Amino acid sequence: MKLKSRDCSINIFFSRWHAVFTLLTFFGLLVSSNYAISESLLNVGEDQSKHKPIQTEVGVFYFPGWHSKRGYWNDIKGLPGSRSPNVPWPDREPLLGLYAEEDVKVAEQHIEWANKYGVTFFAYDWYWEGKAPSSNHAIENFLKASNNSKLKFSMLWANHSDVPRNLKEFDDMVSFWLKHYLGHPQYYRMGGKPVVFVFTNGRLEINAKKFGWSAKSLLDRADEMARKAGLSGIFFVATNDTRPSDSFEANLIKQGFSAYTGWCNIGGETNKPVTLDYQVMVDAYLDSYDAAAKTKGEILYFPPTSSGRDSRPWLGSKAHVRADASPMKFRSMLQGAKALIDSHKKGVMPLVMIQSWNEWAEGAYIEPSKKWGFEYLNTIKDVLGKCGTQIGQPCAPSEMK
């Protein structure tokens, strides 16, 4: 099976597509098992000058594409027969080198770095082929890692395909989650519920309709399965780059989601390949924060961020390119997300999502690299104000670039 990256074009397509179903009421959203959520976050009309900056958590999407059998490093190296023949990308080499991701030592090093620089959890891209998962080596190595107590983990269900094709495939998938992941003590929870991200809510709706169900009915079914297994349910989060609005948020609620975030809002022209400066992407995210600040906040929102987009190693001339991405430009995006959180606007959660840890071929990575070193991680630590395991601890000057 060929591993599919979560292409922005899929999310762009489904971000324009909404469905209407019955309303979901929230359960236990005021208190997270990982941190206490400020009650003022859900209050409207208070004097915002009374509020102080909020301690912020950081979730990072993780692409499990670098198993040595995949051959994706060949695209970065520009080898003949790869998707980037004779065009290498030396600027995209990890500080660890072109690692074999199936080695548990890679997971342990990633955990150490993520913990040191303020990351709360990895959300591993997770693929289900109907009968079994694929490319789950990275999340499995997290579970095997000797130091996994230093980091939480979660899943992004990468539902790009026509799976589930029937109810059994869906039930089997949720059963697998329950058996292998959701009950783990390091699994990231909100309101006591394990958090599962869904890559495309639109694709879920389309697939569900093919066998007489809906996105909401499937998510409700999964929630009930979790309760019967002794959990508090499942906290489902949609990833969608649609500009926040009351109508969009209402549709997500009616589909059964408890929250939403973004994926890669590239900004500018999206209907055809165009090369623009990464600042266009930054501006698109800042605009989405402004839009989120104006909604009623009836569904929870995790401010999204992205370190870049340039998929030429995989798509060549067909790639959307946001050129000249840098930690400094990324800083302004993070600052916008943090300002929205610190405004205590109803529904905005103190959790910043970052796309991604290691999307080397798509130009979205914060993992230490030979080009940037630790600059992206230092920027995250500096802006979001969390160093290591001490929430709110200022960064030591000697660690800053």
Provide structural commentary:
There is one protein chain. It is built from twelve helices and 18 strands. The chain has 401 residues and is α/β, with parallel strands linked by helices. It has a single domain, classed as TIM Barrel (Alpha-Beta Barrel), CATH 3.20.20. The C terminus is likely disordered.
Number of domains: 1
Share in β-strands: 15-25%
CATH H level: which superfamily? Glycosidases
CATH class: Alpha Beta
Fill in the CATH topology. Answer: TIM Barrel
* Average of the residue pLDDT scores: 87
Which structural class matches the secondary elements?
alpha/beta
Distance between the termini: 41 Å
Unreliable stretches (pLDDT < 50, length at least 5) are: 12-50, 386-401
Please count the helical segments: 12
Oligomer: single chain
The topology string of helices and strands comes to: HEHHEEHEHEEHHEHEEHEEEHEHEEEHEE
Largest sheet: 11 strands, mixed
CATH architecture field: Alpha-Beta Barrel
How many beta-strand elements? Answer: 18
**Shape by Cα distribution:** globular
Please bin the fraction of helical residues: 25-40%
* Rg result: 20 Å
Produce the secondary structure layout:
Layout: H1 8-14, E1 57-62, H2 72-77, H3 104-116, E2 121-128, E3 133-134, H4 137-144, E4 152-157, H5 167-180, E5 189-190, E6 193-198, H6 201-210, H7 215-228, E7 235-239, H8 246-254, E8 259-261, E9 275-277, H9 278-292, E10 300-301, E11 304-306, E12 309-310, H10 312-315, E13 321-323, H11 327-342, E14 351-355, E15 358-359, E16 364-365, H12 375-384, E17 386-387, E18 390-391
Parallel strand pairs: 1-2, 1-14, 2-4, 4-6, 6-7, 7-8, 8-10, 9-13, 11-14
Antiparallel strand pairs: 2-3, 5-6, 12-13, 15-16, 17-18
Helix pairs in contact: 3-4, 5-7, 9-11, 11-12
